[in-house]
């Protein structure tokens, strides 16, 4: 599957970046994330529980960052196994840019699913991934633009968000992939901010590719 | 015996147990100490198997054993064979790469069997299956039929360079070229015969049981041909004596061809039952049916028809690429060759036909016979060609067919593609069908539809099939590894009832009724006194099973012959009892009479005497139990005309089939109601292919994208009209019953009739199946797309 999109976050790039540096923010905002573990400066593992229709499964994935250009963009690639549900692998190019006082996050995901995920879920994954991405940005935008993160929430929660709050994050309708060339090769030693941002996008991928 | 004999619409005897939930299917059978199997299947379309770590699975609760291909190799378990050798255009046999029940070095399609977990419960086996760690090395995959040979495609088997199984020809290419050189007009079409997933209502299942006391096996399996399965397993896979295996195929809930073949799962269950010394059972879940039942069709074809200025066919050239899938299923090689190209003459006098078929391997499930098996594909090519030719030539579609029909006085008719049709009357079915559909009134109906904003179309399909498969000598000369006769044992019991043991197998066809009618009428006994026994190699004589619309034409003929033997023996006993000469004893409706006297004995009395032979002829054996084997002299050739009328809503693209007339010549008919039911079911499957069903693999990854009913659309009752079925009759000339077979006709005729009707409504020449609303909407609303 291919999924491109753009989110506009009503906060300055610096504010977004600060929030992205807070793991607890991400734990609160990422739907279904159970574990995030950094395994090196440019790689981490995550476990996400995702649900599509009647099927709920836990997916374990490995994610690697490359083509790092902090804080503007990078390439992220990952693969994971969902047991009998099948496998998934893929990558995304991510690009952050300022837009007035706000920040645009562009992503371009190319993921491939296999096994039962493809047999049963191919028609459902796109919609589910979009919805989960929307959920994430709704919560994230609320957190970034609305005040202090809910740091007390150590475990993932899935509170129902009023529709009004989702206005803060507006999924762009454009389907053309943003130019996310990240030529600068920063090499190893990426900052905490980069890998946390990576988690954000990784979860997008995980959601996209493990969404069953 | 008008109520129950030949020609009566007797209600199906078997339906009582089916409708009251008392059928007994393979999954209903449970054996003491039984264990359950779960298959670990490849999620990749093409991957090397670098290693399998079974440790965690073996340690899981309830797990008895985990086996891989290496374990089967260590026991010298062989490859699942393909039983029909097709010689290519150079005379070389087809490429036959091994097909091991559990993959050894590579997985070659999504669903390929990599390991099996045997556990005390199915849930335990399934949970442990998730703990089997397979280290895959992913390889590029090829799933598209037309791309398998483009050089860049990854090769599946070392034995088959460039993924080519065979390059086969039928007919003389130079003669065809000469005919085309004289043509007034040449019609050319490109077709895809879409891939189908069989979807029998009952999923495949197997239960293997080893008896250590006798060192023998019993295998319960959802098979259409238990003896054939036994033969393949013993002679080819395990290399064991046939007396060491009994195969039982009890009630089977639909097969449509997909249960002919010898599959990995039943082979593994049987083998594993000896390894773990306990019965091993497996029943497919629906996802497994989608990924690992043998699929059907999947042809890519270019075809050309040469005509003179009157639309008379001068020659036909057909070039087809057929997808075999990742491995050769049991009879896969024969389907796009001897069951396909030999039917390209259709009902017509086309004098020269040249066919070239290339069979290719792809990273998809194996493809084999599916209801019609080659003949629907042939009919689709011929009837689409003829329809397009009629439109291009400006000739009425009925008229162009009539101009080219083989005439009744031309039979037996030798076609240019090997077959010799024994009899038929195609004009008769044409006339009757045109009358039933009111062809003359079509223009008015079309106008009425237009007034409602709808597009109306009419489509013909003059199909022919070669059924009653098959004369053993003929198929043997064409590469078949088996004979295709059938057996029957008719046993009169001492008190007058009859048990019939048939090598045919019923999985929805209604044999228990039709065969009972045949026996009741032939022997002159009440139908209630007849029992039909099938499906157990431990009780029935060696038989070849049910497929290719053969059960009545071949199996019924064997029953008829066995009944004849019963009557002849009874005549001798009757002559003795009535103190007459055998020549003077007549038999009619169950009673033996001495001609010109009032002496008579019922056949039941004779049967009693045969088992209580106190007063008995010296030269006759006791008992009344006769076996006959029948090998047909020719194929049978059911044929007819189906006419489909559709109404399309251009606003939604939805096609509604508003009328369907089927006029079929099946020869003599035993039970018209059963025949009509078979026609209905066949049409439904053919319409399913034409409108709804489509098996799709991702062209890059080889992932099955239509792996559930969310994405694979089966026909439902509200997709179909009330079919109007008519019969014509020319009795088959070479079997004792004059019957031809009816099980596949609908599926053979329907796709072409449907697409011909839709393209007629849309005013276009061609489109590929399935005619989904989206596709039809585009064609109806984007005229430039239609200008092919």
Automatic annotation (TrEMBL), chain A:
Residues 147-182 are annotated as: Disordered. The chain crosses the membrane at residues 192-211. InterPro entries: CO_DH_gsu (IPR010419), START-like_dom_sf (IPR023393). The keyword Hydrolase does not apply. This is Carbon monoxide dehydrogenase subunit G. Keywords: Membrane, Transmembrane, Transmembrane helix. SUPFAM superfamilies: Bet v1-like. Residues 148-166 have a biased composition (Low complexity).
TrEMBL record, chain B:
Residues 20-140 form the Aldehyde oxidase/xanthine dehydrogenase a/b hammerhead domain. GO terms for molecular function: iron ion binding; oxidoreductase activity. Signal peptide: none annotated. Pfam families: Ald_Xan_dh_C, MoCoBD_1, MoCoBD_2. Keywords: Molybdenum, Oxidoreductase. PANTHER family: ALDEHYDE OXIDASE 1-RELATED, XANTHINE DEHYDROGENASE. This is Xanthine dehydrogenase family protein molybdopterin-binding subunit. It comes from Pelagibius litoralis. The lineage of its organism: Bacteria, Pseudomonadati, Pseudomonadota, Alphaproteobacteria, Rhodospirillales.
């Amino acid at each position: 599957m291919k999924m491109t999109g753009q989110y506009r976050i009503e906060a300055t790039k610096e504010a977004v970046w600060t929030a992205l540096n807070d793991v607890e923010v991400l734990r609160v905002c990422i739907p279904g994330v159970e574990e995030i573990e950094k395994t090196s400066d440019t790689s981490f593992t995550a476990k996400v529980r995702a649900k599509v229709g009647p099927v709920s499964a836990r997916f374990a994935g490995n994610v690697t960052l490359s083509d790092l250009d902090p804080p503007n963009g990078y390439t992220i690639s990952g693969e994971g196994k969902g047991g009998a549900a099948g496998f998934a692998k893929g990558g995304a190019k991510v690009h952050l840019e300022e837009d007035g006082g706000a920040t645009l996050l562009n992503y371009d995901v190319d993921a491939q699913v296999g096994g039962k995920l493809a047999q049963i879920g191919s028609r459902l994954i796109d919609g589910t991934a979009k919805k989960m991405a929307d959920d994430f940005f709704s919560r994230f935008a609320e957190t970034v633009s609305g005040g202090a993160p809910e740091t007390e929430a150590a475990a993932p929660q899935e509170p129902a968000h009023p529709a009004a709050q989702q206005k803060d994050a507006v999924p762009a309708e454009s389907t053309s992939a943003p130019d996310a060339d990240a030529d600068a090769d920063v090499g190893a030693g990426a900052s905490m901010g980069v890998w946390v941002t990576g988690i954000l996008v990784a979860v997008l991928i995980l959601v996209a590719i493990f969404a069953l | 015996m008008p109520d129950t004999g030949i020609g009566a619409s007797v209600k199906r005897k078997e339906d009582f147990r089916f409708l009251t939930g008392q059928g007994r299917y393979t999954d209903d059978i449970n054996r003491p100490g039984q264990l359950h199997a779960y298959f670990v299947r490849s999620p990749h379309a093409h991957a090397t198997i670098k290693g399998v770590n079974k440790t965690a699975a073996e340690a899981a609760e309830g797990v008895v054993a985990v086996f891989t291909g290496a374990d089967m190799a260590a026991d010298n378990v062989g490859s699942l064979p393909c039983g029909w050798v097709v010689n290519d255009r150079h005379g070389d046999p087809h490429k036959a790469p091994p097909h091991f029940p559990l993959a050894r070095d590579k997985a070659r399609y999504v669903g390929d069997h990599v390991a099996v977990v045997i556990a005390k419960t199915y849930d335990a086996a399934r949970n442990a299956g998730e703990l089997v760690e397979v280290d895959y090395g992913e390889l590029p995959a090829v799933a598209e039929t037309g791309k398998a040979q483009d050089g860049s495609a990854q090769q599946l088997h070392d034995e088959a360079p460039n993924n080519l199984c065979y390059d086969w020809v039928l007919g003389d290419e130079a003669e065809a070229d000469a005919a085309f050189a004289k043509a007034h007009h040449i019609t050319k079409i490109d077709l895809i015969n879409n891939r189908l997933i069989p979807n029998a209502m009952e999923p495949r299942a197997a239960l293997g049981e080893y008896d250590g006391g006798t060192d023998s096996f019993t295998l319960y399996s959802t098979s259409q041909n238990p003896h054939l399965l036994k033969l393949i397993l013993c002679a080819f896979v395990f290399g064991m004596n046939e007396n060491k295996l009994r195969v039982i195929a009890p009630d089977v809930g639909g097969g449509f061809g997909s249960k002919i073949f010898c599959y990995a799962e039943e082979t593994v269950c049987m083998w594993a039952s000896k390894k773990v010394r306990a019965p091993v059972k497996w029943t497919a879940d629906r996802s497994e049916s989608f990924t690992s039942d043998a699929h059907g069709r999947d042809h890519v074809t270019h075809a050309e028809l040469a005509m003179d200025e009157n639309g008379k066919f001068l020659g036909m050239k057909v070039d087809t690429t057929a997808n075999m899938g990742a491995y050769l299923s049991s009879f896969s090689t024969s389907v796009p060759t001897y069951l396909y190209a030999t039917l390209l003459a259709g009902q017509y006098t086309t004098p020269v036909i040249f066919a070239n078929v290339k069979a290719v391997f792809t990273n998809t499930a194996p493809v084999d016979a599916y209801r019609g098996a080659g003949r629907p594909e042939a009919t689709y090519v011929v009837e689409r060609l003829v329809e397009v030719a009629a439109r291009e030539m400006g000739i009425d579609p009925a008229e162009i067919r009539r101009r080219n029909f083989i005439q009744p006085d031309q039979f037996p008719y030798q076609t240019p593609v090997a077959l010799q049709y024994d009899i038929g009357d195609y004009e008769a079915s044409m006339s009757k069908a045109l009358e039933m559909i009111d062809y003359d009134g079509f223009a008015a109906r079309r106008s009425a539809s237009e007034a409602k904003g709808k597009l109306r179309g009419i489509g013909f399909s003059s199909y022919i099939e070669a059924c009653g498969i098959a004369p053993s000598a003929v198929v043997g000369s064409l590469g078949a590894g088996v004979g295709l006769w059938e057996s029957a044992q008719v046993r009169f019991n001492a008190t007058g009832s009859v048990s019939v043991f048939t090598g045919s197998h019923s999985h929805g066809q209604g044999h228990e009724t039709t065969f009972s009618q045949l026996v009741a009428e032939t022997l002159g006994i009440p139908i209630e006194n007849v029992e039909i026994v099938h499906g157990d190699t431990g009780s029935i004589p060696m038989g070849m099973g049910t497929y290719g619309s053969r059960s009545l034409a071949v199996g019924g003929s064997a029953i008829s012959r066995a009944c004849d033997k019963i009557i002849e023996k009874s005549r001798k006993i009757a002559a003795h009892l009535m103190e007459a000469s055998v020549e003077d004893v007549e038999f009619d409706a169950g009673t033996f009479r001495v001609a010109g006297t009032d002496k008579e004995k019922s056949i039941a009395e004779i049967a009693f005497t045969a088992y209580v032979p106190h007063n008995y002829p010296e030269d006759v054996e006791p008992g009344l139990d006769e076996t006959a084997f029948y090998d047909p002299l020719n194929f049978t050739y059911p044929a007819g005309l189906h006419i489909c009328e559709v109404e399309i809503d251009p606003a939604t693209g939805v096609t509604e089939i508003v009328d369907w007339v089927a006029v079929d010549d099946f020869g003599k008919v035993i039970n018209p109601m059963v025949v009509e039911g078979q026609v209905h079911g066949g049409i439904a499957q053919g319409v399913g292919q034409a409108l709804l069903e489509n098996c799709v693999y991702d062209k890059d990854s080889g992932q099955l994208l239509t792996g559930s009913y969310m994405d694979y659309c089966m026909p439902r009752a509200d997709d179909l009209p009330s079919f109007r079925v008519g019969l014509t009759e020319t009795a088959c000339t070479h079997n004792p019953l004059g019957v031809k077979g009816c099980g596949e006709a609908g599926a053979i005729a329907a796709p072409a009739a449907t697409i011909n009707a839709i393209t007629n409504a849309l005013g276009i020449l061609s489109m590929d199946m399935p005619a989904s609303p989206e596709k039809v909407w585009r064609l109806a609303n984007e005229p430039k797309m239609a200008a092919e």
